[in-house]
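User: Sequence for Flavonoid 3'-monooxygenase below. Tokens please.
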Amino acid sequence: MAKLNRSLNTMELAAWATIFLALLLGAVLFPLITFHSRGRRAYNLPPGPKPWPIIGNLNLIGELPHRSIHELSKRYGPLMQLRLGSVPVVVGASAEMAKIFLKTKDEAFSDRPRFAISKHSAYNYSDILWSPYGPHHRQARRICAAELFSAKRLESFEHVRDEEVLVMLRHLHQASGRTVRLRDYLQTLPLGVISRVVLGRKYVVEEEGASPPAITPAEFMEVMDEVFVLLGAFNIGDFIPWLDWLDLQGYVRRMKKMSATFDSFLEHVLDVHNERRRLEGDRFVAKDMVDVLRPLADDTDLEVPLNRDSVKAITQDLIVGGTDTPANTIEWAVSELLKNPEILAKATEELNDVVGLDRLVTEGDLPRLPYLEAILKETMRVHSAVPMLAPHLSREDASVDGYEIPAGTTVFVNVWSIGRDPVLWDAPQEFMLERFLGSKVDVRGQDFELLPFGSGRRMCPGFKVALKVMARSLANLLHGFVWRLPDGVCKENGP
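Assistant: Structure tokens for Flavonoid 3'-monooxygenase:
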């Protein structure tokens, strides 16, 4: 054990020595970089904290970046300039600023920064989320709108959503009377829906009679968990590029490992689909989204040809984008209702009046459940699944609110701050769904005070699926069970 400890200490000393040498090199280079930049044009930048040499304002960013940046915005205003390492960053923290970045001047701010996660896990920026703005991105969104998320396509998969909600309810019914960890049930629901809709079969459970998958259900859940961790990781090499090779936090190593596992899985999925297409020949009918996407790789009339990696990248986006947001939102909604039993009682009363006591809630019932809709909107305001929208990048110099934003600036829209803006919301810290009863504020990207799915050219293309899964699932959870906190837990202990 002593030998092991000495070995670990030696490794730690070596790592710290490497970091020290890298910082020393930066300290030597910084004056040269500063001298070189003196001849550049001076911009009228938004207000913000003074950056330190090398690290910029990284010292002000805590474990929850959206909260740290929110506190800074309260001091410097809804349009704020930061320097994270060597990367210039602008933050929009109001509905007005969000509208400028995402609608008024959407084209100027429609690009994406090239972060490590997009390089290593998005097939070198060839997916929808991280691809640079241009012909490939526009074409991918057109494919989503016309082929993957059209009204007809969504309707054709309603039976899948029906069946997966029923599976979740049966599993919960088996646990009736016991304390349950709701997230365990919620995670498998959207993942089951999206894997059947996109891939043609469930990969979260062993399916009787199905061919053995390239990845077990447990491995599939594990890699999905890793994807969400790495998507939210604050990788230091993205902001101090000359430290990237050190991979100080180990994120790049994990990204490469996760990507290799996911790629092996997607290769298996494409091979299975290609084989079915070959065997069925002229009888082939598309049954899932991969069936729709795969032939497009052979379409010579496309503006930008799609290759196998492009198909895998878009498929991966569909899986990841359709999984985490519904589970998080439903979990937060139930948590808030348990803390507010009077709201829970009213929601149950609405469901009993509209649906009755002898059947499950269907998607046809949802338009007649305004109280349930208000619960979901208030949940997404207070607990946005993505507190800061995926970063944008300015493609050209632009003027915003009298300030200048240089080309190449990374732009964050802090949805978490907007949801707590006292100018927009009375008592913003309180869970008050009444604010949405009779309100026309929606989540479809046109009302900038509520942007759980973003807006404009970079809005989440699959938000309609997410809304259907969330509303249907929450309605049946409330309609089918009586919920209460575990013994010994009071609502003051809630989130």
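The chain is about 50% helix and 5% strand.
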